[in-house]
Amino acid sequence: MTAHAIRRRADSRLVPAAVAAGVLGAAGAGWVLLARRMAGMDMSPGGDPGALGWFAVTWMVMTAAMMLPGSAPAVVRAVRDQRSSAGSTPAAAPIAAGFVVAYGAVWLLAGLAGYACVQAVRALDLGALGWTSAGRYLAAAAVVGAGLYQLTPVKRRWLKRCVTPEHHLPRSGVAGALRAGAGHGVCCVACCWTLMVALYALGLMSVTWMVVVTVLIAAERLVAQTVTAVVAVAAVLVVLGLGIAVAPASVPGLTLLPAGHSAAMGMDMSMR
Description:
Order of helices and strands: HHHHHHHH
Radius of gyration: 20 Å
Distance between the termini: 63 Å
């Protein structure tokens, strides 16, 4: 074996490890920023997501923290595919960065769409959606619904595309990485949007619930027995939803609202 071949083999092992470490490092930095950003915030279920600018920045940080751990294999795969095409060895960092930037952009668009929906409902000022009225049951239905979505063919199809894409990722430099990242982002949003709705119902500003949802997302993507993981996630969500409906005080980590609170789904939050 020539020295060049030895270097290529070593490179093929070290680069994926370095890319994975970088992605997980970015996720870790996201968690640090989230912990600081959420300090002192109201962590009750539902409610006002705050000013658009504040929400957009927070959503992007939250996406990095919650989604990158489960998407690390996809980033590594994009780098590996492009570096192995036609024997070329382009720099890994621009490819990984392009993939992550496009992936995050798709999630930002999804977050802004959700933000618009929430603000439209809140503008109606429906007292019936207060926590002591229908809000509690609406939150419970959102969490149970996320659990039931886990069991649908649509969920299975999108999850399969997230874990094992039907085709190789594009192999055309940074432009290909951007395209691949956007494609993976679409799969990820279609696969996980109900989990993010459940997070809103449980407490969007709660780091505890962010961690729980992150573990659920990573588990269904990284555990070898994917079907078992998906069913387990569904069971967890259904139990949580039923707990919110029947006995919210017994749900660990759920921040209950003061009696008489009238905000939609139970929370009114002032952004500082």
